[in-house]
Design brief:
This protein has 285 residues and is of the alpha/beta class. It contains 13 helices and 13 strands.
């Protein structure tokens, strides 16, 4: 398997196919689904298979759309330019009035995940976040819970900020790139989605083996599948039924294995209460 970055970059070829689909489909019959840098598998073939899976069960054409940042996808689905998106819990709680929860992935049997603090494997001295004071630190995305908000909140509890605590910080705009930056000693520490790190550890142990997890956060609601508030209720319910049925469907189960997920559940907004509390705390600072 190849890495998710190549898969996502390959989605840049989607606009031409999407334009053809629009020309052949009645207005609003095409369902737009936004993908952020949540870990999907290896290549364009997987995304095409997932799209075909949705189309066969929804009986409608589907377009996958990807953008570089969480914010671009979230703004588009929030404003009704996309029907659905798979996003982080942080923007979900920030824009909860404009987004509706459709389903939450099951990872290792639970609709939960953690933020990991990682350092180079060769660094045997760093044990906790405080040991990284004055070091270079990599974040994934400004709107990522695991890749930014959680660390920012931890520093807020210490009455400091990333700018004051670290010598320098930068955003990679992909969780895998955080792992790569730490593995290559470009950063002396990084914040990464635990689901991504664990999945990479299965697929690319030669990469994660050059890093070491020194801290794991408490559990948070796993990045959810959401709908725009403008998405009709019947469309939302149809997509929800497809996602919830994947684990019990032979073809769906194959796709889930490629995603390193056990399935999807309805989930509850309260799964994201911990993220909402951290967001309120740092926003007041």
């Amino acid at each position: 398997m190849r890495n998710r970055r190549r898969l996502i970059l390959a989605l840049g070829a989607a606009p031409l196919a999407a334009a053809t689909a629009r020309a052949q489909a009645p207005a609003r019959s095409l369902l737009g689904v936004g993908l952020t840098k949540v870990f999907v598998d290896d290549q364009l073939g997987f995304v095409l298979a997932w799209r075909r899976y949705f189309e066969a069960r929804l009986r409608r054409p589907v377009e996958f759309v990807q953008r570089r940042t969480y914010r671009e996808i979230v703004d588009t689905v929030r404003d009704g330019g996309l029907d659905f998106a798979w996003i982080c819990g942080y923007p979900f709680v920030r824009h909860r009035d404009r987004l509706r929860l459709v389903a939450v992935p099951l990872f290792e049997g639970e609709p939960l995940y953690r933020s990991y603090l990682i350092v180079p494997a060769s660094d045997s001295a760093t044990r906790v976040l405080d040991d990284l004071r004055g070091k270079v630190f990599a974040f994934s995305d400004p709107d990522s819970n695991s890749g930014h908000l959680y660390t920012r909140y931890r520093l807020h509890q210490r009455n400091t900020t990333p700018a004051a605590f670290f010598a320098r910080t930068f955003f990679t705009f992909a969780h895998r790139k955080v792992v790569e930056a730490v593995a290559a000693h470009v950063a002396q520490g990084g914040a990464v989605d635990g689901y991504v790190w664990e999945t990479l550890a299965r697929l690319h142990p030669e990469l994660t083996g050059r890093t070491r997890v020194v801290e794991k956060s408490q559990q948070f609601g796993h990045p959810p599948f959401v709908a725009s508030a403008a998405t009709p209720a019947a469309t939302l319910e149809a997509m929800q039924a497809v996602l919830l049925g994947m684990a019990g469907d032979a073809e769906g189960a194959v796709l889930l294995r490629q995603l390193n997920l056990d399935g999807f559940v309805r989930g509850e907004p309260r799964l994201f209460d911990g993220i909402a509390a951290m967001m309120r705390a740092v926003d007041r600072a």
